[in-house]
Amino acid sequence: MRKDRESKQTLRKQTAIQMRPKAQAERKVQANRPKAQAKAKFAQNVWKGILQLLFPLRCPVCDRIVVPAGEKICLECMGKPRLLTPPWCMKCGKKLAQEGEFCADCRSKKHAFDRGRALYAYDSVAGSIYRFKYGGRREYADFFGEQMAEYLGNFIRSTQPDALIPIPLHRKRMAVRGYNQAQLLAEAVGSRLGVPVCPDFLVRVKNTAPLKYENPKERQNNLKKAFNIARNDVKLKRVVVVDDIYTTGSTMDEAAGTLKEAGVKEVCFIALASGTNV
To answer: Do residues 184 and 145 make contact, with C-beta atoms less than 8 angstroms apart?
Structure first.
């Protein structure tokens, strides 16, 4: 018995001795981890600084090189985009001219989406959105997405979405433009709020004509059967659809209807801007 106890004690001592270098190595790794993270962050900041020197950011409002350097918008331009403040429509989020629950559009029309919100009044960012969509200014998405996450974040979280779904472009328009501005916004918002983005869940199968010169009835007819579901293997119950502009709701209604036909129970939306006669 005594020999057994002695042999066990010897074995434990040998095991402890063998484990000691490993434990020391682990402690060393843990001690060096903050230093490694600091070095990585420093290198990232240096690389970011080099990129800003080579490719300086453009202000999303005035389109000049951002002053001061390192910011996402010129300080003198910060107050120019007008945030949509209450009272707003409880359905679509449009600014109300007077106290009430719903705008005239939502009182007269039944929408397929559940509710939505927009960030800016369209007329205050019309030029910015035009350059963002058609002028190759995809870098605007970082600032706009940051603002959407900050000011619309509580609304998004209140819907408890399974995913953000950007309004898709038709493949022909995507080939010409090179990017989908709604997807860039969705990714910028999703990364800040920790919400997954599913850019390939909803697809545009109809290359619709530009909607800005059409009346609400023409928009509705133009958008019929415009979307389809591409990911039947993904099951979503609650989603937030993301787009750059909300006007009559025709695009959102068609997208929401398609999503609900595929089994989505609740479809809300966020938009960069909202307005009339857009």
So the answer is: yes
H-run or E-run covering 6: helix 2-54
Domain boundaries, the chain: 1-55, 81-274
pTM here?
0.79
Which CATH class for the 81-274 domain? alpha beta
Per-residue confidence in pLDDT tens, the chain, 278 aa: 555 656 656 656 665 556 566 666 666 656 667 776 677 666 665 655 565 555 688 999 999 999 988 899 999 999 999 999 999 999 999 999 887 899 999 999 999 999 999 999 999 999 999 999 999 999 999 999 999 999 999 999 999 999 999 999 999 999 999 999 999 999 999 999 999 999 999 999 887 766 665 666 666 666 778 889 998 778 899 999 999 999 999 999 999 999 999 999 999 999 999 986 55
Going from the C-alpha of 176 to that of each of 141, 166, 170, 173, 181, the distances in angstroms are 19, 18, 10, 5, 13
Per the CB < 8 A criterion, the answer to whether 253 and 112 are in contact is: yes
How is the chain split among helix, strand and coil, in percent rounded to 5?
Answer: 50, 15, 35
Residues 6+ apart with CB under 8 A from 150: none
Please report, as a single letter, which amino acid is at residue 3: K
Angle at 28 between CA 27 and CA 31, to 5 degrees: 85
How big is the chain by its Cα radius of gyration, in Å?
A: 26
